[in-house]
From TrEMBL:
It comes from the Bacteria. This is DoxX family protein. PANTHER family: DOXX FAMILY MEMBRANE PROTEIN, MEMBRANE PROTEIN-RELATED. It comes from Occultella gossypii. Keywords: Membrane, Transmembrane, Transmembrane helix. The chain crosses the membrane at residues 55-75.
Amino acid sequence: MMFAVTGVAHLLRPRTFDAIVPRILPGPARAWTIGSGVIELVLAGAVWNRDTRGVGGLASAAFLVAVFPANIRTVRLMRGRSARARAIAWARLPVQVPLVILALRAATDPR
């Protein structure tokens, strides 16, 4: 469900996400934003579908690890912003761990 919501958000509000695309990635940030939104929607569907849940869970865990640098970049970009914005950015970092665990659990849970 989370990937469905964030995937749609990436497609409807790409400007929000463009700034956190690590500069080391080649090409325009918008392409990475749209691409990651599409991937999130595909992953949401894969985890939702019982036949693809195993591979979807593993791919979701890998994706969460792959986008972690963007979360670190967000923390850096929040310097000088409100205390609330900085707290939210910092809170996202440790949340990745249980999300990866949930994704791996989905990979092994037939329900």
